[in-house]
Structures
1.
Amino acid sequence: MTDSKYFTTTKKGEIFELKAELNSDKKEKKKEAVKKVIASMTVGKDVSALFPDVVNCMQTDNLELKKLVYLYLMNYAKSQPDMAIMAVNTFVKDCEDPNPLIRALAVRTMGCIRVDKITEYLCEPLRKCLKDEDPYVRKTAAVCVAKLHDINAQLVEDQGFLDTLKDLISDSNPMVVANAVAALSEIAESHPSSNLLDLNPQSINKLLTALNECTEWGQIFILDCLANYTPKDDREAQSICERVTPRLSHANSAVVLSAVKVLMKFMEMLSKDLDYYGTLLKKLAPPLVTLLSAEPELQYVALRNINLIVQKRPEILKHEMKVFFVKYNDPIYVKLEKLDIMIRLASQANIAQVLAELKEYATEVDVDFVRKAVRAIGRCAIKVEQSAERCVSTLLDLIQTKVNYVVQEAIVVIKDIFRKYPNKYESVIATLCENLDSLDEPEARAAMIWIVGEYAERIDNADELLESFLEGFHDESTQVQLQLLTAIVKLFLKKPTETQELVQQVLSLATQDSDNPDLRDRGYIYWRLLSTDPVAAKEVVLAEKPLISEETDLIEPTLLDELICYIGTLASVYHKPPSAFVEGGRGVVHKSLPPRTASSESTESPETAPAGAPSSEQPDVIPTQGDLLGDLLNLDLGPPVSGPPLATSSVQMGAVDLLGGGLDSLMGDEPEGIGGPNFVAPPAAAVPANLGASMGSGLSDLFDLTSGVGTLSGSYVAPKAVWLPAMKAKGLEISGTFTRQVGSISMDLQLTNKALQVMTDFAIQFNRNSFGLAPAAPLQVHAPLSPNQTVEISLPLNTVGSVMKMEPLNNLQVAVKNNIDVFYFSTLYPLHILFVEDGKMDRQMFLATWKDIPNENEAQFQIRDCPLNAEAVSGRLQSSNIFTVAKRNVEGQDMLYQSLKLTNGIWVLAELRIQPGNPSFTDLELSLKCRAPEVSQHVYQAYETILKN
Amino acid sequence: MIHSLFLINSSGDIFLEKHWKSVVSRSVCDYFFEAQERATEAENVPPVIPTPHHYLLSVYRHKIFFVAVIQTEVPPLFVIEFLHRVVDTFQDYFGVCSEPVIKDNVVVVYEVLEEMLDNGFPLATESNILKELIKPPTILRTVVNTITGSTNVGDQLPTGQLSVVPWRRTGVKYTNNEAYFDVIEEIDAIIDKSGSTITAEIQGVIDACVKLTGMPDLTLSFMNPRLLDDVSFHPCVRFKRWESERILSFIPPDGNFRLLSYHVSAQNLVAIPVYVKHSISFRDSSSLGRFEITVGPKQTMGKTIEGVIVTSQMPKGVLNMSLTPSQGTHTFDPVTKMLSWDVGKINPQKLPSLKGTMSLQAGASKPDENPTINLQFKIQQLAISGLKVNRLDMYGEKYKPFKGIKYMTKAGKFQVRT
């Protein structure tokens, strides 16, 4: 007799019949009926109509029946909240039962009933159960707190359950500890800011002790929790690592991977010279290899994580290439991942083996896999220079197979090989050309056309080949059209005599018959270049191309470091930080690897040490994304068409914009890796603007001389702060500050490329702001910014841009664009950059104005701890254009009367009280009067920064 | 944590759903069905599928998809390991894990699932403990239950659950005390065309069946423990003892369990016990191809190779095959193009061979891909890595148990390229 009988129905109507059975007097019949109800529930049938009848069966000594009713309740209580209350009494009674199994069952089930009214009754039983003598009940109650928190977070906090839960971390039973950790972690996830899991050396020690004794699942929770801890020094890190390593020998792969995460993270703190570091590296390899012999689903997750580990610490698995060899019956998702890792591990030592394997894979059945294998051969060639020749010959062998998709894929990668090793393997071009007709994929066609154009001088019939493509010009994809245009222009520049007609034809096709703006623009540019200055055209179109970088698909170092902290999680499977995909408004805390701190030198607490600190000091003024975008949509994010430019460079500026703009749009649409670098912004274009900038500063130098002795160094300049962290801008880090040098304001920027690709095409725009600050010249980054390179730029600003009042007043929203994307950030500028040089008011005027401004506009401030005398104060302020109009001494106190003027003509008057004779009283009192009182606060801040630095 | 579980058969019907938190509509599985459609074969369905509000993590076992639904960031391996544990538990309870069996035992299945997870946190996953909570159905018990009205739900807290040795229940009694250990090794290997080994590794396990009275404390030592590259232990094994002395010391669970799994990788030379000689030729513009394979023993330490089965996925262009085996039986499925040859024992004096012709699609060019030959075999009384148990001792109890150790080598993923 099996349970399938529960599914049989009679004609009378199932629900009706069940109802009768549930109300039967016979226990046995009742139980059978409940089983039938449960069976219907499992397959998704709605049996909620039976709610009262089922609940009536709850009062019973029969544990199975009780459990079944509980199962039913959990499913349907939500839809019948009023009826569910009927069950409360039984629950409360069961929580007092002498049998711990029943107590636990009751508290567990109650937590699963997601009805508000029930949760109120739950609190008392739960409180008792959390302190139950039986650990089985305690561990169940711990989970129940998490359930309750999910239903009603406020209630849990009010009732103090969180503290009880924290106490359970010190419980004597490891299972209880593990469940408490799990529950706290889950609660903490919905409250990232709350400091629930307050990890300190003592609690860590407790966790490590529990780790050895609790179940496999508990070990996962504890290890994941440990991974969030930052040890105070390398000794502590090492001792934790030592106690975690035994977990690498656990049969449960999730435990192993969580242990790997802890070790990978804490390893960061260990010095590489340490013997222990080497030992640890050796210990990590075998468990990772073993993960690969598990079921394919586990393998997949393991492989995604190994992919990260191999990028972070290639030395761990460098001798284990063979375990990544693909078996023909591996699922496709495993095959593709293995292939990826094989390429990452490829080196001169093992390249022969790898190539032999890849060649084998290229004859497999699965098309996706074969394509990837062919690509992999190309990547090997680019990665391991010594193998390039062998790779090329392998690719040629594959082309000989004439399998269509293999040939196309091979041509695409050979193009990359040409880019990496120019003028080395051109002998194969003939073979490639034979396959011209079989190419039907745009990428392959574009690659082939690029090759023909690039080596036009060595291909006798290059013009015929290109012409053959030209016939169907309009049917080609944009990628191919652009490539064809460029290739024919290249050909023309190389063999001008025979190809004039061809180039005319393609230019007219591109400019007159095409409705694609990119294509048209590029056509016009070429046309103009060719017609005005063929020499310049040659320099631009046939310019030397930068070599392509070794590995194009590496994860950026900052992201990689973050992902290492997320080993074993979904983030590691997607290779994205959780903030990129975790749902909802739950703020996600960015994790970062701990900095390496030696115990001998660490006096600071680690919280203050990390390199990330500057960014956290950054004022948090970035408005919500929506607002910012809305505002910025008004901006023109293309190349700057320059606001009212500096008079000195206006003429050149215009010229730059024309060229720069055109080129810019060309470059943006270039298919990556093919022709882009042809258009390295011609140096000629950059010069005039450069000149403008230098002339500008030349002028200010002149001013500097004439302005005489008073101003020595211009106004106070704050140290550079990070405005845009690399994390938020795909690898571009921007830090900067504002300066005012005799009459001109500038924004001193430092751009650092922390990505793996070259950055070009920088442009900057400001949103409208309170004082009309705007760039006076375009952002000039002269050379492409290569990875890890930093440039310092001084961007001249003026104050004639459009004005919009910002909150706070000195908030500046900035958009920076490069070839990768557009990034937004906002920053606060110090107000004193707006203090103009002619801000000294005459005495009479000062008095009159002071009286004139109503008293309610006066604001009082205190500048604390400023042990300067009146002379020094006045000198310092003067260099920042705050001028002392008069000085008085009243009862041993120095009174300074000062004036300053903002760029928009607003005057601010100040009275500063100093007590020079009293060393214990170093506070300065500042009264500000101004017709626009909202600036007072910021003027005060300016005072404070100037005087304190 | 794990929100819900759906069981889906290969034709795409959801035949069981279980929710541990709020109910998730089964329409979430539509995303899974989409992925299933995209993947040509069931094995190729990706194990992690993102949907707008949930993530679906699945395993495919016994022609059933076990699909877990999660909503927050949960370690995927944790979920997948748990799903495997569910499959193992079903198999343990019902003997087989299949759709009809699960449907037949749906209430037990439901009760078991409820015991395994609470609010998405694993609760009891050890089969020993589960069986104390929910007794597995047997014909006898079903009959008894029907007559006496007793239940198959245990009403006492499982004794082992919270002790220092949670895996062992107390008060175990046997009249015959016995402890059996099976050392089982699987060879995974890729052999290339010319017969040389590209990669070979050994996955080994020691499965135990221990029926001993009381609280025995066992130690097991090996002749050559350094052979093992990586080891994973049952929680009962004392790790420190292994680290310092390379001895397995443990209080065993009662009944069947996996004591140890280990890995011997390519760094140590792995002996390959069989070889395959093959000659498969397709000729251009001929509708006939020749096919011949011979299987022979290589490094078997004098043991017999049995249970040999050769399978191979032939290229699409092969219409049919007409082959004659020197022993055993063979089949070729012209639809799936799967060739299977059940060889049986290998007699070193008279090597088994299979030869004949293949009929190919007329006029088509020769296939691009070469078939790979998959081999299964068994060798009794041999651990191919050379691992040997030195001795097994028991402490803590007075009686003398009966001890036995068996070795066996099997083919894991053993592939020969042609």
Note: Chain A touches chain B through 104 residues (CB under 8 Å).
2.
Amino acid sequence: VQSPISIYYHLTFHAEFASFKAAALIQRWYRRYMARLETRRCCTWRIFQSIEYAGQQDHVKLHDFFSYLVDHFTPNSNHESEYDDYESIEVPDNYTGPRLSFPLLPNHATALVEAFRLKQQLHARYVLNLLHETRKHLVQLPNINRVSTCYSEEITVCGDLHGQLDDLIFIFHKNGLPSPERAYVFNGDFVDRGKESVEILMILFAFMLVYPKEFRLNRGNHEDHMVNLRYGLTKEVMHKYKTHGKKILKILQDVFCWLHLATLVDEKVLILHGGVSDMPDLELLAKLDRHKVLTTEVVSCEREGRAGSCPGAGSAPWAPPPGLPRGHRASRSSSIPCSCGPPWGPGAGRCRQQAGPPRAGRRGFRKETISWSFQVVDILWSDPMAQEGCKANTVRGGGCYFGPSVTEQLLQKYNLQFLIRSHERKPEGYEFCHRRKVLTIFSASNYYEVGSNRGAYVKLGPALTPYIVQYQANKETHRLTMRQRISRVEESALRSLWEKLFASSLDLLGEFKKHDADKTGLITLSAWAEAVESVLHLGLPWRMLKPQLVNSSTDNTLEYKSWLEDLAKEQLSRENIQSSLLETLYRNRPNLEAIFRITDSDHSGFISLDEFRQTWKLFSSHMNIDITDDCICDLARSIDLNRDGHIDINEFLEAFRIVEQSSTEGDTSDCPQATNTDNSGCSKPSKR
Amino acid sequence: MADDKEREGTELVIAEFHKKIKDAFEVFDHEANNTVDVREIGTIIRSLGCCPSEGELHDLIVEVEEEEPTGYIRFEKFLPVMTKVLLEKRYRPIPEDILLRAFEVLDPSKRGFLTKEELIKYMTEEGEPFSQEEMEEMLSAAIDPESNSIRYKDYIAMMVVDDG
């Protein structure tokens, strides 16, 4: 007979055990739920990254076209005088924005921050004035800036901002405004992509003038007029400053060239934008003429084994970009060699390791006169990698991937403790690698979308121990739960992916057909994944993304034609447009815009018929589109609708659409959305 | 004959599993070198449809780790182990009704909800306790701020829909 007490204990034990088990079950279920959210978040991140890098690759393919344009880039015939006449620019009485007077005082700089927070715009006259003073200041400074923690107790290092003013304001709010006791180093990429690059530049330059010893700026790969053409700064400036925009851009181009290349803290911590190569030479870096590196973009694309040219370098500050000595012409090979096929072949991630021979082997090709500019390219474009060694960075088209031993070598050679760099976005805003000897710091939070990533900055005290602060500069995000955050970011990523898929509908159809030998109209989902990857070359985990891209797959097969039709329905916003044309437009738009802006050398927003013809001839020869001179002339004339002898950007894009149509006419018959299948070859552009 | 067909069927299934596992692994292979941080293994396994407990996860990690743990798991070691897990249909996910019963065990007086304090107590003191971060995450989505409690039936319904 069991005593009542033991029965009691028996029961309570079971009860407790039951709640233990119940809790364990709930936790198990919850952890799985969270893991699936995390996976979706990572997939989303990968989508953004691959699309962005793929965009960069497209650009790389056109790189020699750009360099040819740079060669022929003639400056405006009315030369601006070196000391620009900004004083003659009148500021109207009703201007309510901030006013600057020089020499700048701290309250001017603070007032700027406040004014921009209130969405005011700085008048062009003050912008130009500020830029001139900035240039005067920068010219006296060395390539490698030295900072000491004896003077300012702490130094705050910030990474890429990319035009996101909110993040800068947040940093100043959370960390405090710059002052003699609070030093700052901004590590490049202040501009492009975000919408307030101009405001960020004004603030950074203002503080630099006010606290020259404590506020420093390193150059990033986006402090470069060629990159700006493509990624947004040029557009932003011209939009905000319609009258004086081109003057501003011109002087900005110069200011960028005068920025520091690197900052050294207490001779122990090296701060630079991208990374290092396996032959770091700080002495050379300190001595070289940094101002001569007008752009690293063309240089970076040139380096794949072609010796003897150094485009992007000029001989004098105001020399036009093609300051190449006679006889040094940019050679025109059209692809970057990659040992495993096209840069974005299957298993694209792997390609980054395999592509290109190890850099040491290429030493022999480089001439002494140009090797110094490659040092600069390395500094601005390189990325760390986990493997040992040092190889060309074919993903970016410039700089290299450097391994842990390269870092170790650098630190030992110059007796340094660690390296701080930026250049790569990280979900947490920062990341250590190479046994904590390299710190990546990225300060643009929500870079892709609200909730996509945190930003961070790092503080160094006299002990030089890095102290990292993370943030996400958007009030709304804090209130969103993780579930919601992921949906919004995911939506945006998926949208981009849909667009890319749509842009390749024809190719996809071709691939699907290959998997459907029996012409049943169906393919397995596995085949779908393979086909999509072989067309898009994005290296994405398609099977993981399948639920979001393919609607209700019945028994593991997919009716591919109707899937493609669904894609088209999602994308079509205009009627009467053949989808193949829309595809091409989608595919080429960023490049075409960049080409337009280069052709439009005076940034007027228009190009002349003549300029258009010349540009088109070049483009078609590089892209192997066969079209006669007459056709181009006809095209040019028909594009110019109002017959004023000028073409604006939309007309320009239209031209490409029409010519691509005439060259791909034969393939449109299978396309789900094809309307008229006129196979008569080069069709006349339709009159509107 | 039947044996051959069966074997061929299994081979196809295994081939599919291999591709699925590879894709899931790649999502977290940030350096594109066929390794992932050991801390992501749990996420990968769960993303493949499994629902192991922390203890079971720990055992799995021991199986796929190097002899001298490096903090990284290599794909070559992960693939066979994970394939076996999928073939054996181990760590099946928890059906909705079982989950509901678990909540009901914690709510013996059948009020239909748990208070915030009760939830915290159970999740951080019993079973395989949550970390503070996990607890905060759960609270942010589960707790109805007005009543400061979790109506678990509604919560389950909400979470399950999202899980699609």
Note: Chain A has a mean pLDDT of 70.
